[in-house]
Every structure is written in structure tokens, then in C-alpha cells.
User: Fold this.
Amino acid sequence: MTYDEYNEFCGSLQATSYVVQWGNSHVWKVVDKVFAVGGWGKTGDPAFNFKVSELNFNVLRDEPGFRPAPYMAARGMKWIQQYDVSKERDEDLAYYLRESHRIVSLGLTKKKQKEFGLNQS
Assistant:
């Protein structure tokens, strides 16, 4: 997935906003909380950082092409970086970005969730 494809995908999710910050990273928020960061790759190649469940963190941190996200995981947060961004992994990346959006949105107050139409099933 390219940064353009990543930005298009994240922009399609509900109640999101985009900002460039943290060293020209592509930062996506659900309401006012970060759920995805495009950037921080070791070699300047695309890399994507996202919040995961504890189970997915424990599985993905040892998988080829993934690692604990720089800065975030070092602070005890369950964030993973996918740095193998081959086309074959686009579907997986889309799943993890969607899940990160869901996990982060669940941390919003019930009032904000309702106001933005999130998690209303």
C-alpha cells in the first residue's frame, strides 16, 4: 500500500481527520484520538503504525515484516508497525487499520461515540 492508498483508505473510515505531524508523518485520528500513523520506517520506505489488541500485539511483534511501533510501543502502548508493505499484504493492513480505528473509537466517551455515530450497533 502506498501512502496515497493508505490516506484514501483511512479517509474512508467514519469520523476521521488527517494531519501531517511528527516528522512529516501521515497521522489519522478518529474524532481526536490517533489510530494510525504512516511513517517512521527504518529506510525511508513506507511503514504503517496502528493500535492492536494485546493478542495481536503478541502475535505480530514476532512476525516477519512487523515490529513493535517505534516510540509508541516503547511507552507500553500496544502499537505495531508494518514495514513490509508489499501488495500481497494490503488486505491485512486494511484489516488492522479498520481494527485500530474501532479499538481507538471505543476509548472515546459514550457521548462522543454517539455524537459521531460510532459503535452504535
